[in-house]
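PROTEIN DESIGN WORKSHEET
SECTION A - STRUCTURE
LENGTH: 239
TOKENS:
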């Protein structure tokens, strides 16, 4: 599931939670930022809600974040698998023996999404990048007693980041990338470089496909050569 974890929980849980929907509508209507954010929502799931209604609720929640919105056809296609992914214990570490599922659902709830101070309009539902990974690590770190949260996040980012070049660069120059901010900046520059490089390669490939003529040449068989040589001999004899 290559969706942002906030999107997973809000799509699979919040859109069918009547109490969470009512909380969000009240908050949005009254434009209150602090009055009811600390009150924990007691979930009340309504499985009778139509998929079109749930899709509308999700996009209303994400109306300030266009890259987090989702098309109705994609919602219809992915919602069942998302609900299965969130609900079943086999998708969690140790088959959810230590309550990993509850921590995961609570960490990426609608309330935590609304409290997320550093989310931007560029926050995207697909293709989790390193800055979204850091956002989610910060949410999980709230339940831990780390003495230095940034150092722990830096270690996790270096260990589990998909950019192997970033890991090699940090190990090659450890004194230069001692802080989390330095590693984040390096990751941003590398992601931008990969993006532009991929675009150039696609453009070059498209141009090559246009300019290259694909001609299929049939390789002559030995029999063909023999037949051709016999015909030449016959032609010479007629002369």
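SECTION B - SEQUENCE
RESIDUE ASSIGNMENT:
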């Amino acid at each position: 599931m290559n969706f942002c974890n906030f999107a997973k929980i809000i799509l699979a849980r919040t859109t069918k939670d009547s109490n969470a929907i009512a909380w969000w509508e009240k908050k949005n209507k009254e434009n209150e930022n602090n009055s009811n954010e600390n009150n924990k929502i007691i979930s009340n799931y309504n499985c009778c809600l139509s998929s079109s209604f749930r899709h509308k609720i999700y996009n209303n929640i994400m109306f300030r974040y266009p890259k987090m919105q989702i098309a109705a056809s994609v919602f219809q296609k992915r919602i069942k698998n998302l609900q299965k992914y969130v609900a079943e214990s086999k998708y969690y570490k140790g088959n959810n023996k230590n309550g990993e599922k509850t921590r995961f659902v609570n960490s990426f709830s609608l309330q935590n999404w609304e409290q997320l101070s550093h989310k931007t309009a560029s926050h995207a539902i697909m293709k989790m990048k390193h800055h979204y990974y850091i956002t989610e690590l910060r949410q999980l770190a709230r339940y831990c007693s780390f003495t230095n949260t940034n150092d722990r996040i830096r270690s996790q980012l270096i260990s589990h980041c998909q950019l192997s070049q970033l890991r090699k660069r940090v190990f090659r120059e450890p004194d230069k990338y001692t802080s989390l901010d330095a590693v984040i900046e390096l990751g941003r520059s590398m992601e931008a470089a990969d993006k532009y490089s991929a675009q150039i390669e696609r453009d070059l490939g498209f141009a090559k496909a246009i300019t290259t003529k694909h001609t299929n040449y049939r390789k002559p068989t030995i029999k063909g050569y023999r037949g051709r040589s016999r015909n030449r001999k016959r032609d010479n004899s007629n002369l």
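SECTION C - NOTES
The mean pLDDT is 76.
The radius of gyration is 28 Å.
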